[in-house]
Design goal:
Layout lengths: L1 H24 L13 E6 L2 E7 L8 H11 L8 E6 L11 H7 L4 E6 L9 H8 L3 E4 L3 H7 L1 H9 L3 E9 L17 H13 L2 E5 H7 L14 E5 L10 H4 L20 E5 L4 H9 L3 E5 L1 E2 L2 E2 L1 H10 L4 E4 L3 H9 L5 E7 L26 E9 L2 E8 L3
Parallel strand pairs: 3-4, 4-5, 6-13, 6-14, 7-8, 7-13, 8-9, 9-10
Antiparallel strand pairs: 1-2, 1-3, 11-12, 14-16, 15-16
Helix pairs in contact: 3-4
The structure holds ligand AOF and zinc ion (ZN).
């Protein structure tokens, strides 16, 4: 029985240290895409002797940073345990393999959250460590680690962006009053959350009707945050040249980070194949990238668009569209996650918009099923986090 007690205590300890690694990994949010969020700590004789995380795309991996930081503090990693939320890499990428450094440092045990879905690694990192005589444990806080890198996992395995729908609704599911007035449904707390989301997603996407109605900037105004790349669904290129999206193209908001995958953070106008070529040229001359997509029921085929955006290196999209765009996204099956901010208000009105319009399904049996992962209080509002059931 004592032995089992010891095991349980040791497992709890592993989880506590892994939770810290996850916390550190999150510091890279908005800066590492399309690479993963990775945090690491070194523990020796029960004490943390170093912390590190992947700070920025293309730069040192978390494992390199944690070892360097320990040494900077005059601590010897030899004989220590490394906690890292993602399997260490064993390939030559932009940086040399972390496994070699780990082995050289004399680390004796490595505790991993999840295996690396990157086909270049995928189990081989762990193998290399074991071959060197290092004890490896994996699957610690597995669910949390998977969620932390849900974007990375999706993008590296499908080459398509991870799409999160974000909507702000009243208790009766409305996104505006019957007059169309929508400022504001949710409280300040919820709206601050949106700024965080814009920072942590590579791109933000809306329909042209949102541009026509609200003339939004779609920037991240959080201190130290970066603005996402903008994608406008605009089948017939109706976007006004005087809109803030178009006139803002001259300036370069966002961070100066080098992101070779989406080099110039250019605003993308997704139109159908038959959109007017002259208008397209004019918009391109103003600095936009026009992406021609297959048509689906007279609109941009979102499935085709996702393939094209994936090829451009866009790993994640925050979809802040209205009910029509959301309906198309749901029905084309491109939605990976739903974040619903709900304010304790009733707007009423049969004609007031809801966050999913379209035709809908003929019977509840045909409804798209979701799994609620979390419900949280955000000031007066609640936020529901849900995933499509089949995922
Ligand atoms: C990171 N940061 O802390 C870890 C990563 O192109 P590279 O050389 O930066 O390698 C990227 C791959 O390395 C990435 O897809 C993942 O498989 C692995 N681990 N990547 O950017 C890190 N540990
Ligand atoms: Zn590495």
């Amino acid at each position: 029985r004592d032995e089992r007690m010891c095991e349980r205590t040791a497992a709890k300890l592993d989880e506590t240290f892994m939770a810290r690694a996850i916390e550190l990994a999150r510091r890279g949010e908005g800066k590492t895409a399309p690479n993963p969020l990775v945090g690491a700590i070194l523990v020796k004789n029960g004490c943390v002797i170093g912390e590190g995380w992947h700070e920025c795309f293309g730069q040192a991996h978390a494992e390199v940073n944690v070892i360097r930081n320990a040494k900077k503090n005059h601590k010897d990693p030899s004989g220590s345990t490394l906690y890292v939320n993602l399997e260490p890499c064993c390939h030559y990428g932009k940086t040399p393999p972390c496994t070699e450094l780990i082995i050289k440092s004399g680390i004796i045990r490595v505790v991993i959250g999840i295996m690396d879905p990157n086909p270049l690694v995928a189990g081989r990192g762990t193998e290399a460590l074991r071959r060197a005589g290092i004890t490896v444990a994996s699957g610690v806080l597995e669910e949390d680690c998977r969620r932390l890198n849900e974007i990375f996992i999706h993008f590296i395995t499908t080459k398509r962006p991870f799409v999160t729908i974000k909507a702000a609704v009243s208790l009766d599911g409305k996104t505006a009053a019957y007059t169309g007035a929508s400022k504001w449904i949710t409280g300040e707390h919820s709206r601050r959350e949106v700024q965080l989301l814009r920072n942590s997603h590579t791109a933000v996407m809306v329909g042209v009707n949102t541009v026509l109605a609200d003339d939004p900037e779609l920037t991240c105004r959080m201190p130290g945050g970066r603005s996402p790349r903008k994608i406008i669904l605009d089948s017939h290129l109706r976007i006004p040249k005087t809109s803030k999206i178009m006139t803002g193209l001259g300036s370069s908001p966002g961070s100066p980070l080098e992101k070779p995958s989406c080099k110039d953070e250019q605003t993308i106008l997704a139109c159908s194949e038959d959109a007017d070529t002259r208008t397209a040229k004019e918009l391109e001359a103003l600095g936009a990238m026009v992406l021609r997509c297959k048509s689906k029921e007279g609109r941009v085929d979102l499935d085709d668009l996702m393939n094209q955006l994936g090829a451009l290196g866009i790993d994640s999209i925050l979809l802040e569209g209205g009910g029509t765009v959301n309906a198309a996204a749901f029905s084309q099956g491109i939605v990976n996650k739903l974040l619903l901010h709900m304010a304790p208000k009733i707007l009423g009105g049969a004609s007031a918009k809801t966050f999913v319009e379209g035709l809908g399904v003929p019977s509840p049996d045909c409804a798209q099923q979701f799994r609620i992962q979390d419900v949280g209080l955000y000031g007066e509002d609640i936020r529901i986090t849900a995933y499509p059931s089949e995922a």
